[in-house]
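Action item from last week, closing it out:
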Amino acid sequence: MDRSAPAALPQTTDEFTARICPRRTIYGSTAVLLPFDADGRINWDDFGRHVALTAASGLEPALNMDTGFGPQLTPAQRREVLAFARRQLGATAPLIAGAAAFGGPGDALANYQAAVRDILDHGATPIVFQSPWLTALGGAELAAAYQAITAPAPRAFAFELGRMFAPFGAIYDLDTYARLLDIPQLKGAKHSSLDRRLELQRLALRDRARPDWLVLTGNDLAIDLVQYGSDYLLGLSTYDPEAFALRDRWWRDGDARFYQLNDALQWLGMVGFRDPVPAYKHSAAIYLMLAGRMADAHVHASCPRRPEWEIDLLRPIHAMVESAKRQPAVV
């Protein structure tokens, strides 16, 4: 790849508006929340219903991500989550799973490679979750690690994670990001910097160097980035996968109802992903309980908790989202 002319950060509003892509088909994936019970055990009943709803909505479920407490689970638990979801969805349903190095007995590379083998054995697509070992690498060395980790996969994704989500996360410099585009089995990367300009920079590089590459926005504070050419793998979409899928169809169809629904979902993102950001998972559990999709709002013991009045904060936003989903078409 020619890296002699790196994409500059956008400087003007014209650079944003020039990118708008009306009526494009949006690829959407959602990082599925893994619910727990009051005793700290995985709530398999609620998880099964939620992962089935996600797939039925048309979004590709992504398991063992940050939203699914992938870094906190043991390798055996991550395999159990993946096997359970595969039984729920059937043998051929599209499925993504986080390939993580956490908790294994060997070195980090060996643990990543073992995780990728597990994911492929379950007919799923690996996305390489960052770790302290991986983000300590740079440039060609990091690209070589991605190549070694994903070599057996016909389809895989990379992942940039801002440190507001996890202390070991990293947003790569653009030259390092460009090296990832040279790896044929990588089909895209989730980008979670929460920075619009960095994301548009990656879109510009994608357009020039590898048009089939998916820039999967993880910007839960700017979900309208799908208008500019991003696709998505969001934690926010686990709050209401059906609403996100409907929003996407309205964009594809040129239906102006897209804007009201997108605005309502963005309200949800602004509240759910406020500081401390990792507590968004507790907000998601509360919202899903409020919506009647889960029996309670228990999350993994490591997750920061929202205040008792969180449900009162989310209740009017839930009403706003439901109203936006039901808005009539203009005829």
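Closing note: The chain has a mean pLDDT of 94.
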